[in-house]
TrEMBL record:
Organism listed in the record: Urochloa decumbens
Transmembrane segments: 591-610, 622-640, 652-678, 832-852
Signal peptide: 1-19
Location in the cell: Membrane
The Ionotropic glutamate receptor C-terminal domain, residue ranges: 467-811
Protein name as catalogued: Glutamate receptor
Biased composition (Low complexity): 914-937
Pfam families reported in the protein's UniProt record: ANF_receptor, Lig_chan, Lig_chan-Glu_bd
UniProt-annotated stretches for the region Disordered: 902-937
Keyword Oxidoreductase in annotation: no
Keywords: Disulfide bond, Glycoprotein, Ion channel, Ion transport, Ligand-gated ion channel, Membrane, Receptor, Signal, Transmembrane, Transmembrane helix, Transport
Length: 937
């Protein structure tokens, strides 16, 4: 009982400590009553208030009241209405609907500490720390524009025209669109802004100017009430036909969803348009609310997505107030010393009161986390207080016929398009990532304006009467590539590159008006890097000529497919080889000659050793045997040896040696032929390595990128580089570095080939040390670069590219001479050491086998001899010296004699053993019987 009394006392104390809940709480609502968004929000807000007052678990005895104020689509009126609402001491405001009004009223809310819970102000700029009391109960336009950018990137468009209302809402959305397009390499090329309430004539004039641009992808960011006027003007200008792309933000879906019976009028203006709608998952609560909305609506309108978010915004506010009151919050207002009425003013500003505990209510609002009709509702303080579902998501809709059809989804959780439902929970997100990680973005087929399912190209040439300005280098040398037309043709330029460009443009399925502009002074070749930079800066729309595709240029412009393969090569002078009486020695290096001669003698000696005991041709006096070794050795070079080999080991060694001789003879003959017929370099430069290791001057063509490449990539000092015109190449190379010329020239392969075709005394050395090509340069993200690349590939496949090449770049008198004829190398040991190794191993193995066989025979022969008188004498000599001499004498014996001696000794030994055995068996009888020789005479 004591414990129970203590609990009762504690509860009574807490009840006394906590203030009593007020009987009613008032909130405000700011929106335009007679608007697509406002008409849906009005009914939704009232339904939410009724549902909250009927729910005993929310506010618990406190009645919620809402005061609605009409902003009348006016920033001024909206501000006045907001001030009047604040005079009535509301604790929170649902709204405002307009982003422009939200910017102004947020300052008032900050001062009076009244939270603003907006369901339709989507300007991304509102999500900043400047407006701490602004809470967005919907997704801001940054997410929506990311979805639009994904559509643009998915279909490969690179340029977009933005058509938008010139308000905070429109400007903020377009800025977000520009940021979202950057990752997909697209951009806004034209901004068509119209003032609020613009008439049909003003909209038509605006669209006519936009239609003169090249982009045919239009993104319309307007309000649901006036946005359809844009499409009405576009239809009058035939801008809703085939080839156009229209993407409308979520305002269009809201306008279409709001129509109850007259939707055909709206959808008839926007056939083929793609629009977005904030995704809200299907649920029983959502279906019930829509059914009750249809019964409650007095203007034959249906609920759109903004109405759903307005409904949840009221619920979020009520839950925040409930948490505020449950934490002991007391609703009280006090005067603001910063606000006072001016003398004679009728504005009654002093009646505005500060909500004393507005900070606490704001914190409780931000803690809301419940499931509403829009899905999971929670506020994200890290995103500037913008409420979000588990992840913002949008439906991609396509208008066709009398309604819309869903072609896909975009989710911020995955940042990609998909035909599957967006994940709305962490588990669904993990499952989605596991199944979609390797899949690309996808959409169902879209019916575009003009009733076509093929995605439009998205751009045309601007219809402003100005042809493309094409920069053409004004070359002064080798003008057959590109230069001013000396015949005064209509284009003013001519050359191989120009003809390739014209042929490629002729293959395009649309006309391309161009105007060629010469770039350069006509005195020397211009700088090609400066020409490319002019294109990047907008001075030219494109550049046509012998322009190399190098890394630093691709960073600022886009190039087409290369139409000429190119690369840097080295040119050096050559001179005819002067043969002399010792030319026959040049195929081999001295080391190669020495090793080859040594092996001839070595193999001859090995064969003599192997054949000496078997072959009488390798026997005789010492003088004859030495002569035989030398004769046999060198006669094998010509396969003219007369001596036959009879031993197995000798034939084995000779077979391998003859194969080596065959290879050496063939190589010698080929090398000598090359040396006697080729030309030799007049300088020591034989390739890139020798060029970099020397300190001699290097020439390069005026305006070429070779200078920057040699300095930046290869580290060649500027003091070694000499800028030359192609007409000075021959003179500089012939004079050489000792007479003010250059040792070599580094230039691109097409120029070098043309130069060498008429200058036979020069050659390229080494290999190409860069791989690039010539292409046409266009401004970044120009769609023409892609189409021309396809055309260039077609020219290459059908042979037109080669025919244009043959027309302008005909071969000269030196064209057939190959660069491989320069500087034949002498053969050295490194090319043949494998053959010599094989031959040496074979000789060594044969000698080992021969020696083992000799030792075995010697042992048998020595054992069979017994103790001869000579052996007895040898016992008195040193044992080792006698054995060596016996072995040498044995080796010099013929094989037949050795075998005969061994067989003879073996027979005698067997006879002796048999006689000895007989003597032993007859011994006793002979001793007992007197021999006949001992009989008396």
């Amino acid at each position: 009982m004591a414990l129970l009394l203590r609990l009762v006392c504690l509860c009574s104390a807490l009840a006394v400590a906590l203030p009593a809940r007020p009987p009613s709480v008032t909130i405000g609502a700011l929106f335009t009553f007679d608007s697509v968004i406002g008409s849906s929000a009005a009914t939704a807000i009232q339904l939410a208030v009724d549902d909250i007052n009927r729910d005993a678990t929310v506010l618990r005895g406190t009645n919620l009241t809402v005061l609605m104020q009409d902003t009348m689509c006016s920033g001024f009126v909206g501000t006045i209405q907001a001030l009047e609402l604040m005079e009535k001491q509301v604790v929170a405001v649902v709204g405002p609907q307009s982003s422009g009004i939200a910017h102004v009223v947020s300052h008032v809310a900050n001062e009076l500490r009244v939270p603003l819970v907006s369901f339709a102000a989507t300007d991304p700029a509102l999500a900043s720390t400047q407006y701490p009391f602004f809470v967005r109960a919907a997704h801001d336009d940054a997410f929506q524009m990311a979805a639009v950018a994904s559509i643009v990137g998915h279909l490969g468009w690179r340029e977009v025209t933005a058509v938008y209302v010139d308000t905070d809402y429109g400007r903020g959305g377009v800025d977000a669109l520009g940021d979202a397009l950057e990752p997909v390499r697209a951009r806004i090329t034209y901004k068509a802004a119209f003032p609020p309430g613009a008439g049909a004539a003003a909209l038509s004039d605006l669209l006519m100017r936009a239609n003169m641009m090249e982009s045919r992808v239009f993104v319309v960011h307007a309000s649901p009430d006036s946005g359809l006027d844009i499409f009405a003007a576009a239809q009058g200008l035939n801008m809703m036909d085939t080839g156009y792309v229209w993407i409308a933000t979520e305002w269009l879906a809201a306008a279409i969803d709001s129509e109850s019976g007259g939707s055909a009028r709206r959808t008839g203006l926007v056939q083929g348009v793609v629009t977005l709608r904030q995704y809200t998952p299907e649920s029983d609560a959502k279906s019930s609310l829509q059914a009750r909305f249809d019964k409650s609506s007095t203007k034959s309108r249906r609920m759109n997505a903004y109405g759903l978010f307005a409904y949840d915004a009221v619920w979020a506010t009520a839950r925040g107030i409930d948490a505020f009151l449950g934490a002991g919050g007391n609703i009280s207002f006090s005067a603001d010393p910063n606000i006072r009425d001016a003398n004679g003013s009728a504005l009654r500003l002093s009646s505005l009161r500060v909500f004393d505990q507005g900070d606490l209510l704001l914190r409780k609002l931000m803690l809301a986390n419940f499931t509403g009709v829009t899905g999971r509702v929670r506020f994200d303080p890290d995103a500037g207080g913008s409420m979000a579902l588990a992840d913002p998501a949008y439906e991609i809709l396509n208008v066709g016929g009398t309604g819309v059809r869903r072609v896909g989804y975009w989710s911020n959780a995955t940042r990609q398009l998909s035909v599957r439902l967006p994940p709305i929970s962490r588990q669904q997100l993990l499952l989605h990532n596991a199944t979609q990680q390797q899949q690309e973005q996808e959409l169902y087929s879209v019916i575009w304006p003009g009733d076509t399912t093929s995605p439009p190209r998205g751009w045309v040439f601007p219809n402003n009467g100005r042809p493309l300005r094409i920069g053409v280098p004004y070359r002064t040398t080798y003008t057959q590539f590109v230069s001013r037309d000396p015949s005064g043709g209509p284009d003013g330029v001519s050359g191989y590159c120009v003809d390739v460009f014209k042929a490629a443009v002729a293959l395009l399925p649309y006309p391309v008006p161009v105007s060629f502009v010469l770039f350069g002074d006509g005195v020397k070749n211009p700088s090609y890097s400066e020409l490319v930079q002019r294109v990047a800066d907008g001075g030219f729309d494109a550049a046509v000529g012998d322009i190399s595709i190098v890394t630093n240029r691709t960073r600022v412009v886009d190039f087409t497919q290369p139409y000429v393969e190119s690369g840097l090569v080295i040119v050096s002078p050559v001179k005819a080889k002067s043969s002399n009486e010792w030319a026959f020695l040049k195929p081999f290096t001295p080391g190669m000659w020495a090793i080859t001669g040594a092996f001839f003698l070595f193999v001859g000696a090995v064969v003599w050793i192997l054949e000496h005991r078997f072959n009488p041709e390798f026997r005789g006096s010492p003088r004859n045997q030495i002569v035989t070794i030398f004769w046999f050795s060198f006669s094998t070079m010509f396969f003219a040896h007369r001596e036959n080999t009879v031993s197995t080991l000798g034939r084995f060694v000779l077979l391998i040696w003859l194969f080596v001789v065959l290879i050496i003879n063939s190589s010698y003959t080929a090398s000598l032929t090359s040396i006697l017929t080729v030309q030799q370099l007049s300088t020591g430069i034989q390739g890139l390595d020798s060029l970099l290791s020397s300190n001699e001057p290097i020439g390069y063509q005026v305006g070429s990128f070779a200078r920057s490449y040699l300095m930046d990539e290869l580290g060649v000092p500027a003091s070694r580089l000499r800028e030359l015109a192609i007409t000075d190449y021959a003179d500089s190379l012939q004079r050489g570095p000792g007479n003010g010329g250059v040792a070599a020239i580094v230039d691109e392969l097409p120029y070098v080939e043309l130069f060498l075709s008429t200058n036979c005394q020069f050659r390229t050395v080494g290999q190409e040390f860069t791989k690039s090509g010539w292409g046409f340069a266009f401004q970044r993200d120009s769609p023409l670069a892609v189409d021309l690349s396809t055309a260039i590939l077609t020219l290459s496949e059908n042979g037109d590219l080669q025919r244009i090449h043959d027309k302008w770049l005909s071969p000269g008198t030196c064209d057939a001479q190959s660069t491989s004829d320069v500087a034949a190398d002498r053969l050295n040991l490194s090319s043949f050491w494998g053959l010599f190794l094989i031959c040496g191993v074979a000789c060594f193995v044969a000698l080992l086998v021969y020696l083992a066989r000799i030792l075995c025979q010697f042992c048998d022969y020595h054992h069979d001899q017994g103790l001869s008188p000579e052996m007895e004498r040898s016992l008195r000599r040193p044992a080792r010296l006698g054995s060596i001499r016996d072995l040498m004498s044995f080796v010099d014996m013929k094989e037949a004699e050795v075998k005969r001696a061994i067989r003879s000794r073996s027979g005698e030994r067997r006879l002796d053993r048999s006689m000895g055995a007989s003597s032993v068996s007859e011994g006793p009888s002979s001793l007992s019987r007197p021999s006949s020789s001992m009989s008396p005479v």
